[in-house]
Design brief:
The protein is mainly beta. The protein has a domain at 1-79. The protein contains 1 helix and 6 strands. The chain has one helix at 60-67; strands at 6-8, 17-18, 27-29, 38-39, 49-51, 73-75. Strands 1-3-5-6 form a 4-stranded parallel sheet, with no helix packed on it. It has a two-stranded parallel ribbon with strand order 2-4. Residues 76-114 form the C-JID domain. It comes from Brassica campestris (Field mustard).
Length: 117
C-alpha cells in the first residue's frame, strides 16, 4: 500500500463517508459519489489533486477541509464563492491584485475559485 499514489472512488453512489486515507496519495477522485457527506481526514500532501465533482451532499466541514487544504487542485460543487476569497471580479471583467512583496519568491502559491453556470 505504500506505493499507492491514486485513489479513485468515482461513481460510488452509496458511499456516505470516507475513512482516513494514506498521506502520500497524489490523486483522489470521488466524482459522482452522490451520497458522500463526510471526509474523516485532512490532506497533508500539498501536491494532492482532489476531485469531488457532483458530490452535492458534502457537509460544510468536508467542504471547508477541501477548500482550506494546501492541495495542488480541488474540484467540488457549489453555488457561492466561499468568504475566504476576498478579491472578486464578476461579469468576466479582469481582477488585479497588487503584490506588495519585493522581490517575489521563486515559487508562490495562490488559490482561485471559479463558479461555472
Amino acid at each position: 500500500m505504500s506505493r499507492l499514489k491514486a485513489f479513485s472512488l468515482k461513481g460510488c453512489r452509496k458511499l456516505v463517508s470516507v475513512p482516513p486515507i494514506l498521506e502520500y496519495i497524489d490523486f483522489i477522485d470521488a466524482s459522482d459519489c452522490k451520497s458522500l457527506e463526510i471526509l474523516q481526514w485532512s490532506f497533508p500532501n500539498q501536491f494532492v489533486w482532489l476531485k469531488f465533482a457532483n458530490c452535492f451532499k458534502l457537509n460544510q466541514e468536508a467542504r471547508d477541509l477541501i477548500i482550506q487544504s494546501n492541495s495542488r487542485s480541488a474540484v467540488l460543487p457549489g453555488g457561492q464563492v466561499p468568504p475566504y476569497f476576498t478579491h472578486r471580479a464578476t461579469g468576466g471583467g479582469p481582477l488585479t491584485i497588487k503584490l506588495n512583496q519585493n522581490p517575489l519568491p521563486i515559487s508562490m502559491k495562490f488559490k482561485v475559485c471559479i463558479l461555472l453556470p
